[in-house]
Amino acid sequence: DIQMTQSPSSLSASVGDRVTITCRASQSISSTYLNWYQQKPGKAPNLLIYAASSLESGVPSRFSGSGSGTDFTLTISSLQPGDFATYYCQQTYSAPLNFGGGTKVEIK
Amino acid sequence: QVQLQESGPGLVKPSETLSLTCSVSGGSVGSGNYYWSWIRQPPGKGLEWIAYMSHSGSTNSRLSLKSRVTMSVDTSKNQFSLKLDSVTAADTAMYYCARAAPTGNYPYYSYYMDVWGKGTKVTVSS
After folding, report:
1. Which chain A residues are Cβ-neighbours of B61 within 8 angstroms?
2. Would B120 disulfide with which of B6, B56, B71, B124, CB 3.0-4.6 Å?
3. For chains A and B, what is the number of CB pairs under 8 angstroms?
4. Confidence class for position B54, pLDDT limits 50, 70, 90
5. pLDDT-based confidence at residue B105 (cuts at 50, 70, 90)
6. B94 - beta bridge partners?
7. What is the pLDDT of residue B58?
8. Which residues lie closer than 8 Å to B110 by C-beta, 6 or more apart?
9. The dihedral formed by the CA atoms of B72, B103, B99 and B94, expressed in degrees to the nearest 10
10. In angstroms, rounded to a whole number, what is the distance separating the alpha carbons of residues B100 and A90?
11. Any chain B CB within 8 A of the CB of A32?
12. Chain A residues with CB-CB distance to B71 below 8 A
């Protein structure tokens, strides 16, 4: 199984801050198999980024993704009030299609 | 636009079978190169992928659940289903259905879950 490890598990930030979340895969995967989701309390996850760096339609351009091999990042260039949520990475290279443990972004 | 809606009992007794259905609207479960998926989230915890299935019957599931999981796709009703046998308290979770859409070039597609249902809460308790 490919394990996905996110860091940090939580962070506190202010509106306007630049935020970076890291996701590490336990083995190398093509960047096409790495996705990022946002989940707000009581809601279903929402796709932000697919194939490591492709922005899903309708997602603000302040979200971006990068990375290859085993190391991937999600960056929010200027944190907005609606961005306080939990973020998950997921690999779809091989089953089980594991998610990272999540990164909770809280208000500072 | 495609929408998904989970349905099923909110309470299941230990050792019984959990049965959930995901109804698809705005699109067809029988078309396209999609995989129809189930994901769950125990209270206060992260996301756990359970299984996926294509309309043609290609399927895969988490190894730790494989012996208890059955998925099916019903193109006539435009829905897909999950059955989880012999449930225990550890199966208590919010259950989501989702569509996994392909990107890239056949046969080297990669997938991402672009449409999710709102989720249905399942509690296993006597």
Report:
1. 95
2. B6
3. 67
4. confident
5. confident
6. B41, B121
7. 87
8. A30, A32, A33, A50, A51, A92, A93, B102, B103, B104
9. 110
10. 12
11. yes
12. none
